[in-house]
Design a protein that fits this description.
234 residues, mainly alpha, Arc Repressor Mutant, subunit A, 2 domains, two-stranded antiparallel sheet, 10 helices
Length: 234
Amino acid sequence: MELTAIVEALLFATQEPLPLTQMATAVKDTAKDIQEAANDPTEVPSWIEPLLTVDELSIRAAIDDLIAHYEKDGRAFTIAERPHGWRLCARSEYAEWCRALFPGKKVQRLSQPALETLAIIAYRQPITKAGIEAVRGVSVDAMVQQLVDKGLIKIEGRAELPGKPLLYGTTDAFLEHFAVKSLDELPNAQELRRVKLPSAPEEQTPAPPDEKQLSLEPQPNVSEGAPADTPTDA
């Protein structure tokens, strides 16, 4: 039994993405169980031994072989990497046909304001609503709530700022929606993260106070022309 066939069966058996480590563990554990269950070592199939030392590189090579095989045969499906692993899925050109099976799950169409808000969050997360509004110049309450309801963004915590405002970031559903496995795959990710953006007043670092400040204590009279630390003649 070839490793590629086993990997294909594992991917076929679940709709959830499978990490390379999980597939490698499943292969090794099963091979070990088969080896230990044999009463006579000579009864163990010869193809079992190589599977006892399968690692992530071996699994990835098997996946690459399967993808190439599907491509060569013109199959309607392939294996795609998702944020949490690999899974069998239909090729993009068949998406409309597959979507007909799920009429209740319509494509999430976002308005231009929602897309702009989502882009700011994606590239500058975690970020507060005030931070988003400083960039867009308008209130984003409705847009943020819409994106939360669609599952594209989530609350990441609270900022260490006055009032402890909420911080927002993208979700795994965002990665799935835009067919990327990580935020680094977003267009011009590194460059856009370094661009200086306007910040909300409460997020701006206050300027350090002047070192020289007027004292509120009354100052002693000093004779004109005499140094301040030199007593005057009586």
